[in-house]
Amino acid sequence: MFCSHQHGPTTVIDAFIEHGADVHAQSGDLSTALHLAVAFQSTDVAIALEKAGAMIHVRDAAGRDVLDVALDLPEMTELLIRNITKQPTWIANEQVTQCVCCQSVFGIAVRKHHCRHCGRIICHKCSGNQISLPKFGIDDVSRVCDTCFEVLQRKDGSSERK
Fold first, then answer.
1. CATH number where 148 lies
2. Which range of residues forms the domain containing residue 141?
3. Per-residue pLDDT for 50 more than 50?
4. Which residue of 13, 47, 50, 142 has the fewest C-beta atoms within 10 A of its own C-beta?
5. Cβ contact 95:65 at 8 Å
6. Which helix or strand (DSSP H or E) is residue 139 part of?
């Protein structure tokens, strides 16, 4: 899907999706169209895929999620986080053995936490902030990863640091 029109109008992506293309489909290396759009810095395509439901926390064969691919692209990271429109489906706890942000190994002393905004599994050190998520219908403050917090608190100023 991504290769069909990586730098052209997103209407091609929209047409694929309208005709049943799976935005969650993974290639042989387990990357998704969203991984590729981010890697090629194709912002419009990445946003179109995300708005169609592509999840940023899906990992490729190298263990990288979409935010890992965007690590050196702060503008892309911000766009990806701001354009999350659907409450994420959480990754199963059994699928993750270490924090996706700092790579601390989970165990008795290091517990797993889900970011309520992006769905990634992080440790306590990497999720020390809470913010309200009204776009998901959540008015109470919720635990979010530090990456999401940095973007969301800049976006609307309604941050609540704990």
1. 3.30.40.10
2. 88-162
3. yes
4. 142
5. no
6. strand 138-144
